[in-house]
Specification:
The chain is α/β, with parallel strands linked by helices. It has two domains: 142 residues, Rossmann fold (3-Layer(aba) Sandwich); 150 residues, 3-Layer(aba) Sandwich (Rossmann fold). The longest helix has 20 residues.
Length: 310
C-alpha cells in the first residue's frame, strides 16, 4: 500500500480512491494508540501552520479539528467569519489571501456555498481540507463514520447501511454514500419523500419511505438530524409527526429479530429522529464516532502535510 495520498487536498470523498481511504484508516489506527497514551501529543506537524476558516457556525467539527491539530503540535490560527471583515463585505479570496499572508501551510474551511473549497484550492498554494461546503460534502465526517464501522466490523464489504432522515439538506449523507460504496457496503436512504433528493437512486442507492422496512433490511442505521436551519419551507407537518413515522425508538428496534448498530453524526435532536434509550444504548457507537473523529482528522492532516510545499 502506498504511504502517500493520491490527492493534495481533501475536498470530497468523490476524489479519494479506496487505497486513499485504507491509508487514512491505517494512519488513524496509529493515532488512536497515541490518543490512548498518557502524553497525547506527537511532534509530527511542528513546523506546519494551519488556519481553521469557518464561515458557518460549527462547534463539534471545529473543536475536533483544533484538537487534532494541537495533538500533532501544529501552530493553529482560528478564524470565525461571523466576527470578521466578511460582515463588512470582504470576499472569500480576500479573506484567505490575508490569512495566507501570515504564511499558513494548510486551510481547514467550512462554507455555506457549494464548491467554495474547490474554488479556494485553485487560487492559493496551501493544502485545503473541506470541513463542509453547503449541502454538498463533509468528507471527514464520512471518514470517521466509516472508520468507526471498520473498527467494529473489520470490513464493510457486503454490509447493509441505511442513512435515515434529512438526506436533501445533508452533506454528511452524500459523503457517506460515496465512502460506503468505495468500501463495498450496500447503501439505502430512508425518509419522507420531501426530504429525499429526486435522482439519488442514480448513485446506486436503494430508496425507502418506510423506517420499519429499512431497519429490517440493514446491519447499520446512520440517523441524521433534521436540519431545520437549512429548510426554507416546511417539508413535513410537524416534528411530532416526523418522530412518529421516522423516529428510531426502542419499540421499533425491539420488533426486529436482530441487533443493528446505531450511528448519529450529531448534534442529536433527542425525541425527534432518535430517542435517548436508543442513542445511549449498547448498540450505539455515537460516542466512538466523536472519539474517532480526532484520530481520523489527525490522519488526514498528517498525510496532507507531507505534500506541503515550503
Amino acid at each position: 500500500m502506498s504511504d502517500s495520498l493520491s490527492v493534495n487536498h481533501l475536498l470530497g470523498i468523490k476524489d479519494l480512491s479506496k487505497q486513499d481511504i485504507d491509508l487514512i484508516f491505517t494512519t488513524a489506527d496509529n493515532f488512536k494508540d497515541v490518543l490512548n497514551r498518557p502524553i497525547k501529543k506527537v511532534p509530527s506537524l511542528r513546523d506546519i501552520t494551519i488556519a481553521n476558516v469557518f464561515f458557518e457556525n460549527s462547534t463539534r467539527t471545529r473543536l475536533s479539528f483544533e484538537l487534532a491539530e494541537k495533538r500533532l503540535s501544529a501552530d493553529v490560527v482560528n478564524f470565525s467569519a461571523g466576527s470578521s471583515s466578511v460582515k463588512k463585505g470582504e470576499t472569500l479570496l480576500d479573506t484567505v489571501n490575508n490569512i495566507l499572508a501570515m504564511k499558513v501551510d494548510m486551510v481547514v474551511m467550512r462554507h455555506a456555498s457549494v464548491g467554495a473549497p474547490h474554488f479556494l484550492c485553485r487560487h492559493i498554494k496551501a493544502n485545503v481540507v473541506n470541513a463542509g461546503d453547503g449541502t454538498h460534502e463533509h468528507p471527514t465526517q464520512a471518514l470517521l463514520d466509516t472508520f468507526s464501522l471498520y473498527r467494529k466490523f473489520g470490513s464493510l464489504e457486503g454490509k447493509k447501511v441505511v442513512i435515515v432522515g434529512d438526506i436533501l439538506h445533508s452533506r454528511v449523507a452524500l459523503s457517506n454514500v460515496f465512502a460506503l460504496q468505495k468500501l463495498g457496503a450496500e447503501v439505502m436512504v430512508c425518509g419522507p419523500s420531501t426530504l429525499i433528493p429526486k435522482h439519488i437512486h442514480e448513485l446506486g442507492v436503494k430508496v425507502s419511505h418506510n423506517i420499519d422496512q429499512a431497519l429490517a433490511w440493514c446491519d447499520v442505521a446512520n440517523i441524521l438530524r433534521i436540519q431545520l436551519e437549512r429548510q426554507k419551507m416546511s417539508y413535513f407537518p410537524s416534528l411530532r409527526e416526523y418522530a412518529m413515522f421516522f423516529g428510531v425508538n426502542k419499540e421499533r428496534l425491539d420488533r426486529l429479530n436482530k441487533e443493528i448498530t446505531i450511528m448519529h453524526p450529531g448534534p442529536i435532536n433527542r425525541g425527534v429522529e432518535i430517542n435517548s434509550d436508543v442513542a445511549d444504548s449498547e448498540h450505539s457507537i455515537i460516542l466512538e464516532q466523536v472519539e474517532n473523529g480526532v484520530a481520523v482528522r489527525m490522519a488526514v492532516l498528517y498525510l496532507l502535510a507531507s505534500k506541503v510545499k515550503h
